[in-house]
Amino acid sequence: SLIFLGLVAAVCLGLNLLFLTVYLICLCCCKRDQEPDSKRPHSCCITWMAVTAGLICCTAVGIGFYGNSETNDGVYQLLYALDHANHTLTDIDSLVAGTTLQMQVGLEQHLARLNELLATRGDYLQTLKFMQQLSSSIVQQLSGLPVWQGASANLTELSSQVAYVEYYRWLAYLLFFILVLTICLLACLGLAKRSRCLLTMMLCCGLLTLVLSWASMAVDTAAAVGTSDFCVAPDKFIMNQTESEISAVVVHYYLYCDQSLSNPFQQALTVFQRSLTTMQIQIQGLIQFALPLFPTAEKDLLGIQQLLNSSETSLHQLTAMLDCRGLHKDYLDALIGICYDGVEGLLYLVLFSLLVAASFSTIICATPRAWKHFVGRDRDYDDMDEEDPFNPQARRIATHHPVRGQLRSFCSYSSSLGSQSSLHPPAQTISNAPVSEYMNQAVLFGGNPRYENVPLIGRGSPPPT
């Protein structure tokens, strides 16, 4: 079913690309017979299409950031619950192993030395033998507790895999958001600067983003549906996965943690507590009656008493850890993280993918129309007369190429040589006073200094032909 959802997204991608292809073919080929003015797109329509696509794209990125953050929070809540449960199971195994070691090694050593020291008293030896039986009973009850080593290893592996996948998923979506914003910026710059290079680059990146958006939608949809299926009945799934390692009664006790359910470890813990209490009473009697008679047994008797006190502390910790409330809370926290925040974030990411696909489809449709609009405007500028004073290009050409070089075309030096030779104005005696006076007056009265009313001879220019 998850593969089917991925194929549905692939079919949607194919339909989207087919629609864009048909649209571009119709835009390029079906309007050749129309008049140039009628097939020229309106810039207002292109602008509104670009603005709408940009707003949809920005909205999609915002939704994507929120969905990515929600999914990340849910996954990390799941990881925290898994780590806490893993620590609890590891601590249970360590407490059971430590207590068993104390009873089998530490207590046995003390009892062996006391058997040698108290060999002359049969009643004391009988007490030591009874204590040894109680310690064997405690070890037997501890051995009946489930070993969580396999479950702890599975939780550790699951946690590491989920953390690895989540890190790269979060990073990939972050890079995807940056790519979407960059392409939107390229589109805005291309339309603003009328750059065909930027529009071509944006068109290629837009097609890539379109494919990535549909691919991300397929992955997010499959992940959301699969997670939702797990969240419908997580108890059955966990019991099926752990039936080969842990008893079904124990798993049921931790998954439901109902007050009506009996603790499957209650009998073992009760025997442990009673045996430990009996051993403490026996060791107190030996300290009270045997120690005055056998002072050399003080070290072993106090050592046994200290060992029993330590075992009692371990018993209380073990009772608290084996209670269903701690692990059940971790189980609920994990479910809330993955089934609420995680699925909600995945749904927002699906919406993000759909909006990105819609916005980039709009941008890809608007790009050829903008291209034709740029071509039409360039053709209009090319058809203008360069000598038209109202032509903006003619003004720019005049600005970059001043008319000083064109003054010689209005004068004929060859035809005016006779008049210049008849006048023979001495170059040394010519005065520039009228010119400077005229220039100063023009500046004083706010005008620009002009040469139209200055005598030609005073300007040093040849007379007109």
UniProtKB/TrEMBL annotation:
Q: List localization entries.
A: Cell membrane
Question: InterPro entries under this entry?
Answer: Tweety
MF-aspect GO terms: intracellularly calcium-gated chloride channel activity; volume-sensitive chloride channel activity
Q: Which UniProt keywords apply?
A: Cell membrane, Chloride, Chloride channel, Glycoprotein, Ion channel, Ion transport, Membrane, Transmembrane, Transmembrane helix, Transport
Q: What's a Pfam family this protein contains?
A: Tweety
Membrane-spanning parts: 6-30, 42-66, 170-191, 198-219, 346-367
Q: Which domain of life is it from?
A: Eukaryota
Q: Record's Gene Ontology CC terms?
A: chloride channel complex; plasma membrane
Q: How does it sit in the bilayer?
A: Multi-pass membrane protein
Hey, which family's this protein in? Belongs to the tweety family.
The function of this protein is: Probable chloride channel.
Supply the name of the protein: Protein tweety homolog
**Species of provenance:** Ceuthmochares aereus
**Which gene produces this protein?**
Ttyh2
